[in-house]
Write a structure and sequence with these properties.
By secondary structure, the chain is of the alpha/beta class. The protein is built from 13 helices and eleven strands. The protein has a domain of 176 residues: NAD(P)-binding Rossmann-like Domain (Rossmann fold). The strands form four sheets. A five-stranded parallel β-sheet has the order 3-2-1-4-5, covered by helices on one side. Strands 6-9 form a two-stranded parallel sheet. Strands 7-11 form a two-stranded parallel ribbon. The N and C termini lie far apart (43 Å). Bound molecules: NADP nicotinamide-adenine-dinucleotide phosphate. It comes from Neobacillus paridis.
């Protein structure tokens, strides 16, 4: 039987796919742009057109599939957007779904991940939720523009600390779970990096790695919001969600360090310094 990976071209999905291939699993890589998936994974996967908002795409994607990596594309803000596909998984007797959730949602009902976890559980689908901290890829991705162009980290996180995790480590954890569905049935795993860092420390590490002086600008919420909407042209809804997340971060919700990654994989998660060295080009 095969494993369906949704968001297979995304930060986490591409590592889930790569790790499952290494484990000898047969992967169906899914997304709205199957050609992109063929370009990334060549003939190592079955690439399939799949859209959460198009119920007609579910049947083909679930053909001969008994396990699923489920992720919520960031622009689908309502938990209900994922319910039709979760219903389809229920009818299909999926043996394990590993949902890409968020650290702390077991106690925080505001992010959509909370309701999505509950919906999967209520339907009785065997689950292994993965609740990661903030991705290191946020810094090498969306926030790298200001680092490259202004030597500045422009994030409204105040003095808070974050236990950043590399999406590669999340992908490996998910693959371990999906590879042993009986062992991890009805479990939840809070996956973090090895240490909690504030953005001054992130700036120091990036300065060392790039050889340039990089500073943390520490903007307020309004300045950040205006800049990302007006200057960067990002969608208002997306920026508003990030403001809410940085508000929560300042409340201390992103700083816990766990050893769930080690328990699952027997390995130590990548440090931010290792990540920055590996992804130096993103900051140059
Ligand atoms: N960033 C963080 O720090 C963080 C921390 C914890 C949890 N999370 C959660 O992680 C999730 C994002 O994961 P990610 O960063 O790996 O994703 P991502 O890199 O933003 O990629 C999004 C993926 O979704 C696919 N997609 C877009 N629209 C789709 C649709 N309508 N139907 C099906 N697929 C669609 C895209 O592929 P196509 O374009 O080919 O369709 C792409 O592969 C979010 O739910 C977020 O809340 C993020």
């Amino acid at each position: 039987m095969k494993i369906l990976v949704t968001g297979a071209s995304g930060n986490v999905g591409r590592y889930v796919t790569g790790e499952l291939i290494k484990m000898g699993e047969h992967v169906v890589a899914a997304g709205t742009n199957p050609q992109r998936l063929k370009d990334i994974f060549k003939d190592k996967v079955d690439a399939v057109y799949f859209d959460f908002t198009d119920k007609n795409s579910y049947k083909k994607a679930l053909e001969n599939v008994d396990r699923v990596f489920l992720m919520r594309p960031p622009h689908l803000g309502k938990p209900e957007d994922l319910y039709p596909f979760i219903d389809a998984m229920k009818s299909h007797n999926i043996r394990l779904v590993s949902f890409l959730s968020l650290m702390g949602v077991e106690k925080n009902t505001i992010p959509p991940h909370h309701k999505i976890e509950k919906y999967i559980e209520e339907l009785g689908i065997p689950y292994a939720h993965v609740r990661p901290g903030f991705f290191m890829q946020n810094i090498s991705g969306v926030h790298s523009v200001e680092i490259r162009e202004k030597n500045q980290i422009f994030i409204p996180a105040g003095n808070s600390k974050t236990s950043f995790i590399d999406a590669e480590d999340i992908g490996f954890s998910v693959a371990v779970l999906l590879h042993s569905p009986e062992k991890y049935k009805n479990s939840a795993h809070t996956i973090t990096g090895p240490e909690a860092l504030d953005y001054y420390q992130i700036a120091e590490i990036l300065s060392r790695v790039t050889g340039r002086k990089i500073t943390y600008a520490k903007p307020g919420y309004l300045k950040y919001r205006r800049y990302y909407i007006k200057h960067r042209g990002l969608e208002k809804a997306y920026v508003n969600v990030t403001v809410a997340l940085y508000f929560m971060t300042r409340m201390g919700t992103a700083k816990d360090v766990t050893n769930d990654y080690f328990k699952l994989t027997g390995k130590t998660p990548h440090s931010f310094e290792e990540f920055a060295i590996k992804n130096k080009d993103c900051f140059m």
